[in-house]
Design brief:
Length: 254
């Protein structure tokens, strides 16, 4: 069922407030870390509207937020890494759309969330053991990209594999942030295009909800981009891992 701009908001006043707050927080996190808005928004939007509408909406909103951020950071991004992850992500996303036809979406989303939590646990363990950073190889980039595309097509959560790879390297925070901003702008574009092809058209529901989400997200992104310059390297990495864990747990229980 198509939604107009006037009736896209939930009926409950609490749900409206929750939706707007989630969009603001998602934008702030996106501006601060370079990722995370989809992982924060997708569980709440899915609970309110269902995953068929929620995933393309949050991807489209995240893409709109990324566009102004890219202009200021693309020179700091690791271009080769972005291209390799994106190529693998396209293949992974196609596999994800095939899986969506074979398995229930709830089952797939739960599997993604559990996998993400395992990744976070491994990263936290490596950090506690003070494991040496790695130099991301072509194999690492292709693996992270393929999982990113797979997870993104199933649940919208394309972030964790790419983020966890970046966090495992010795790249400084500004390089991590820039690379993620550029990569997620590109993979969001691919996934939105695939969802459009799958549906056969751009649904008005996507545009209506995206328009509602963008205002609080834009303000949040503006604030988050300024907070980034105040955070230390260690704080940036801890907040990033914590964000991934929280989003995965939220996806499990909503």
């Amino acid at each position: 069922m198509l939604l107009s701009l006037s009736n896209a908001l939930p009926d409950s006043g609490f749900s409206v407030i929750l939706l707007l707050v989630v969009c603001f927080v998602a934008g702030m996190v996106r501006g601060f870390s370079g990722f995370g808005s989809v992982m924060i928004m997708a569980p709440v939007f899915s609970a309110l509207y269902g995953p068929v509408i929620a995933v393309p909406v949050v991807l489209l909103a995240d893409l709109m937020i990324a566009l102004p951020l890219v202009r200021s950071v693309y020179k700091d991004a690791l271009g080769v890494m972005v291209r390799q992850m994106l190529l693998a992500a396209i293949i992974g996303s196609l596999a994800g759309f095939v899986l969506m036809r074979l398995l229930p979406s709830d089952t797939l989303a739960t599997l993604v969330a559990i996998t993400v939590l395992v990744f976070v646990g491994l990263m936290a363990l490596q950090s506690r053991l003070k494991a040496e950073p790695i130099a991301a190889s072509v194999r690492h980039n292709y693996l992270a990209g393929s999982l990113s595309g797979l997870f993104g097509s199933i649940s919208g959560m394309s972030g964790p594999p790419a983020v966890l790879l970046m966090m495992r390297t010795s790249a400084p925070a500004f390089t991590v942030r820039a690379t993620l901003i550029v990569y997620f702008m590109l993979i969001d574009s691919v996934l939105v295009a695939f969802y459009t092809v799958q549906q056969g058209r751009v649904e008005m529901a996507w545009l209506s909800l995206c328009a509602i989400a963008l205002i609080p997200m834009m303000f949040g992104a503006w604030l988050g981009s300024r907070l980034f310059h105040l955070a230390s390297e260690q704080l940036f990495r801890k907040l990033t891992l914590g964000l991934i864990a929280c989003s995965a747990l939220t996806a499990l229980f909503l």
